[in-house]
Amino acid sequence: MLPKVDLKPPFNITRFSHVVLEVEDVERSRDFYINVAGLVESSFESGVSYLRGLSEACHHSLVLAPANGRPACRRIGYRVFLEEDLDAASDFFLRRELPAEWIEVPHQGRTLLVSDPEGTRIELCASMVVCARQYLEVHTHRGARAQGLDHCQLIVSDPMALSAFYADLGFRTSEYITAGDTLLANFLYRKGVCLDLALVPGTGPRLHHFAFTVPESRDIFAACDCASRQGYAAGVERGPGRHGPSGVLFVYLRDPDGHRVEFFNNHYTTIDIELEPIRWEAASLSTNVHWGLPAPAKWYFEASEFTGVPLIEPAIMPDPMTLEKYVHALLSK
């Protein structure tokens, strides 16, 4: 069912790297990501905040920039291994008649801005300015003590078609969810653990969430406690809970602009070539099997649009079990 993966792709993407968000109030968003998430601010210049996790040495994994209109995701970023991979990437995208242009980005080396077939705006770079890791500076730690950016999830109109595109770039599947022959979610990776990019169906492209690892399970609860203390209690949207696919403990929060961020307690490794993707049937992921309540409807259908990118309606709109449906069914018994 899944597309064949090119194990020797035309250029070498190594990992999910960074997210650039447009926000209404940069100061308010800085407060959330520093005091609730526990990120470190690498620099603040020209009204833009550059943040990173405590274990990250590269200059930024999250950028907060003023919105020109309503809040949105400006772009997401991936790292490539060598400078020459950027030239190969440019050739690849142009051959496929997809946008590719060289841009200047503060604190990054040469950067290529591209779009995937759905229209998702993506930065590719091979290097960034290096900063001192802060994970041992325990006296300065705050909030969830987020360690590093791990993955993002995109809502897209055709997950199967886009899975084939990313398979051509060497993305392998760790786990996937189906309803019969329909692909509902595909969890893809490059860096040797089970996730860099998740694709789910819906009106897209939109950024559903991006996720940071935390050092200990208790930090997932710390995110909730700190959100409450800082005035963001209403932003605790889903969890704490345990995912079926990947099995990690998690919580999802909405930041002051509605962008969704996940905190979770790390992954299993997937680098070995003999590992096969794990298939889940959607019906097996009911709350009768896994503890915790279903997500509210907004978790499935609300997401951050990409700046200036038209939305595409899916051929089939997903119809998940939501918290509202679950409660209604209980009350109807």
Mind explaining what this structure looks like?
The protein is 18% helix and 34% strand. By secondary structure, the protein is α+β, with helices and mostly antiparallel strands. The chain has a single domain, classed as 2,3-Dihydroxybiphenyl 1,2-Dioxygenase, domain 1 (Roll). Strands 9, 10, 11, 12, 13, 14, 15, 16, 17 and 18 form a 10-stranded mixed beta sheet that branches. The chain has an 8-stranded mixed beta sheet with strand order 2-3-4-1-5-8-7-6, covered by helices on one side. Strand 10 (172-179) and strand 11 (182-189) form a beta hairpin. It is globular.
Give structural attributes.
single chain, 333 residues, alpha+beta, 2,3-Dihydroxybiphenyl 1,2-Dioxygenase, domain 1, 8-stranded mixed sheet, globular
Describe this structure in a few short sentences.
The protein has about 325 residues and is α+β, with helices and mostly antiparallel strands.
